[in-house]
């Protein structure tokens, strides 16, 4: 099978997606750890990223899993990320925390912030964590789910390099800019997990299709002329299609305000790309808000949430946001995860 890619329409072989190897979650974590350390990342910074990579694969979000490890390694080596950065924590207000990621990976910076955010939210009822000088945080819902597992309602926002044009405009102004909400369930897992971007699809999905030599569905991206395209490379040179038209642009602006303007991080229009080696550290940001339901609901939160979820589940095939990832996670814990052989070869070479 062949597909056309790029402006020159080069004919490239498509990757056989049936060529896979099954790995346990421990295998994925250890392989990621070795690859990241081999690229120059400190063990302290590599560990939270390796744990998140395994969890992301378990959730079935392969575009942000092992496939992203070579990108992480490339960015450490070219200086886009400081693999040995030490994030610093401050508390400028009683219920506000700020972490400077120091141009390092977002994951250790988020870990640093969460260690203080969770007890602070329980003490104050609500607490905010602002992260600046950061990087791609991977799957945002992975982080908000951790807050839900701590019994808190977690909201998360992260900005990205500009890739979506405003309504009526042509030049990208905001990134794919996802937001996430995770509500704590009575079983210790998120009862509801919303994780969606301002674009019709995450940019990493288009990047993954480009690496694999596969086309993208219409509606995912626009070429440099603003026309719908099935060529992932043309979409990467053009712009992402906003989710729901102007409403997606509004979501992107909301996230930009919270994750960049409110944290002092770099705006998407000034941030270097999350892909390739051009530019220095992107310096983007994250914002997390943790709320203790007991402080706001008078003890009614669990009952109201259960009723809301039940109203969805009683409708036959209706699904609660987060069900898909929970199902993948349960299967992965027992059966492991099937990973594309081509991806494994790249990561294993880094680990060696």
Quick recap of the structure?
The protein is α+β, with helices and mostly antiparallel strands and about 350 residues long. The chain has helices spanning about 25-40, 45-60, 70-80, 105-125, 140-150, 205-210, 230-235, 245-260, 295, 300-315, 325-335, 340-350, and strands at about 1-5, 10-15, 20-25, 90-95, 95-100, 125-135, 155-160, 180-185, 190-195, 220, 230, 240, 285-290, 335-340.
What can you see in these coordinates?
The protein is of the alpha+beta class and 352 residues long. It has helices spanning 25-38, 43-58, 69-78, 106-124, 140-149, 203-212, 232-237, 246-261, 293-296, 301-313, 323-335, 341-351; strands at residues 2-5, 10-13, 20-23, 88-93, 96-100, 126-134, 153-158, 179-184, 190-196, 221-222, 228-229, 239-240, 284-291, 337-340. It has a 7-stranded mixed sheet with strand order 4-5-6-13-7-8-9, with helices on both faces. A hairpin with a 5-residue loop joins strand 10 and strand 11. The longest helix is centred in the N-terminal third of the chain and has 19 residues, at 106-124.
Strands, total number: 14
Name the helicity range: 40-55%
Overall spatial form: globular
Quaternary state of this entry equals single chain
- The poorly predicted ranges are 1-15
**Rg from alpha-carbon coordinates:** 20 Å
Number of helices: 12
Strand portion: 15-25%
Provide the spatial order of strands within the biggest beta sheet: 4-5-6-13-7-8-9
Cα end-to-end separation: 31 Å
Mean pLDDT figure: 92
The main β sheet shows up as: 7 strands, mixed
Structural class: alpha+beta
